[in-house]
Design a protein that fits this description.
Length: 442
């Protein structure tokens, strides 16, 4: 094999598109594969089909280098690639907490039948522990090259909104391998990052699978911990923001992922903790992670509690009350609305009779497609026109920087619920706003 292995990336969603683009920029020949012809056409044409800061510029650079191509033909991928990265989604299964592995199984089995020479298949998708063993079996059985085809696991820790940075300069790399050859392949695939001294953990397949769900479980637990403290603050008059700040100075605790508020959403944390509980129960160790049920429950309660606070700001009833809902995406710098707390709150408000106008800088199209019954406004000003309560539900910079006097002239009543602890209460109260946030005294 030449010094630089040729790479394929199977699945060009969030994770796959970013990986394919960044690897091409790092100097590798990359072929991105997806079954979605529209997505393949968009990427080949230089358009990123979702909102991710910095990625369109990287795509342009990768395409201009001539090292990046996209196709729907998986047989072409098998012929081209020395290393095949599996980057398809593993969403929550319908009607079950388990992960749906249909796409992973489909792509691995379809690729396998075309593999006629020695190569490495590398799983990046988030999967229940034990999946890699099953996929190894599948590859060996279905591939003409048989046991010449090896499987490795290389979990991905990128965050939406920071996808490029997290891929080009990751905190760490985890290589789950079952042979020295597989390790040497991964080392050549990530040579530029290894040269940049990114820490690497070399381990077995089940550990590599587990690292990812353990990391997301820890992050979810940290967020729910501070939100549990917020609930206690709410009944004691204590201030969760100052509590969090005081905790954050202890380097053993740290301040990141300790921001109280509306809680976590998105396509990863919620479904990953549920799939982990499910898998642990299958393995007979459900008790070990049963606390994650509580983590999930605390997180879900934030949405109802935010609605309770908006209702209280409206004077006890939401019927006929106009609410300006700022934010729809599950977090800022993303247009992703999967399990978005903001949209859950908007829908709960509507269910209680409120007239809700939603504005988000990037996620309007996705929100409208998923929830066509909500009202959408094309700007903050139009969403706020005549509102009785403003609810800040996603902490975009645009909302953090709002001038309370300007907004005060547009709304009917200067009442705001800061669902993300994103605003300075003193500034808003000085501008005659009735400012409320969960876990902070009125
Ligand atoms: C998460 C992990 O952070 C990534 O490391 C991982 O690779 C990714 O899932 C994945 O599994 O693919 P992401 O879903 O992009 O990344 O979003 P995060 O930045 O983790 O935020 C998750 C949610 O937690 C957001 O809704 C955010 O608003 C919320 N959050 C975050 C809080 O409520 N408080 C905090 O202090 C931090």
């Amino acid at each position: 094999m030449s010094e630089k292995p040729r790479l394929t990336v199977l699945g060009t969603g969030y994770l796959g598109a970013t990986h394919a683009i960044c690897m091409a920029v790092l100097g590798y020949e990359v072929l991105g594969i997806d079954t979605d012809e529209a997505k393949v056409a968009a990427l080949a044409d230089g358009r990123v089909p979702f909102y991710e800061p910095g990625l369109p510029e990287m795509l342009r650079k990768a395409l201009d280098s001539g090292r990046l191509r996209f196709s729907t033909d998986i047989a072409e991928a098998a012929a081209f690639g020395d290393i095949h990265f599996v980057c398809v989604g593993t969403p929550q299964a319908k009607g079950s907490p388990a992960a749906d592995l249909t796409y992973v199984d489909q792509v691995v089995s379809t690729l396998a039948v075309h593999l006629t020479r020695r190569c490495l298949v590398v799983g990046k998708s988030t999967v229940p522990v034990g999946t890699a063993d099953r996929l190894t079996e599948m590859l060996h059985t279905l591939s003409p090259a048989g046991t010449e085809v090896e499987l490795a696991w290389n979990p991905e820790f990128l965050r939406e909104g920071f996808a490029v940075e997290d891929t080009m300069r990751p905190d760490r790399l985890v290589f789950g391998v079952s042979s020295p050859w597989a390790l040497s392949q991964l080392e050549s695939a990530f040579a530029p990052l290894l040269e940049a001294s990114v820490p690497v953990v070399v381990t077995d397949l089940p550990t590599a699978e587990l690292v990812k769900v353990a990391a997301n479980s820890f992050l979810a637990t940290k967020i729910s911990f501070i939100n549990a403290m917020a609930e206690v603050c709410e009944s004691t008059g204590a201030d969760v923001q100052q509590l969090a700040e005081s905790l954050s100075y202890d380097p053993r605790i740290g301040g990141r992922f300790l921001r109280p508020g509306l809680g976590f959403g998105g396509g990863c944390l919620p479904k990953d903790i549920r799939a982990f509980i499910h898998r642990a129960e299958e393995l007979g160790v459900g008790q070990a992670v049963s606390f994650l049920r509580e983590v999930d429950a605390i997180n879900q309660r934030r949405r109802q509690r935010t609605v309770d606070l908006v209702r209280s700001q409206a004077g006890g009833s939401l019927a006929g009350v106009t609410v300006c809902a700022l934010g729809a995406a599950f977090k800022p710098d993303s247009d992703d609305i999967r399990d978005a707390p903001a949209l859950d709150v908007a829908r709960l408000l509507v269910a209680e009779g409120a007239i809700v106008r939603v504005y988000d800088p990037q996620a309007m199209e996705n929100a409208r497609r998923a929830y066509p019954d909500l009202h959408y406004a094309p700007s903050v000003a139009e969403a706020a026109e005549g509102a009785h309560v403003v609810a800040l539900l996603t902490e975009w910079d645009q909302f953090r920087e709002l001038d309370p006097n300007w907004l005060g002239e547009i709304v009917a009543v200067r009442a705001i619920v800061d669902g993300r602890h994103a605003l300075d209460p003193t500034t808003w109260r000085t501008a005659a706003w009735d400012y409320r946030a969960l876990g902070r005294a009125a």
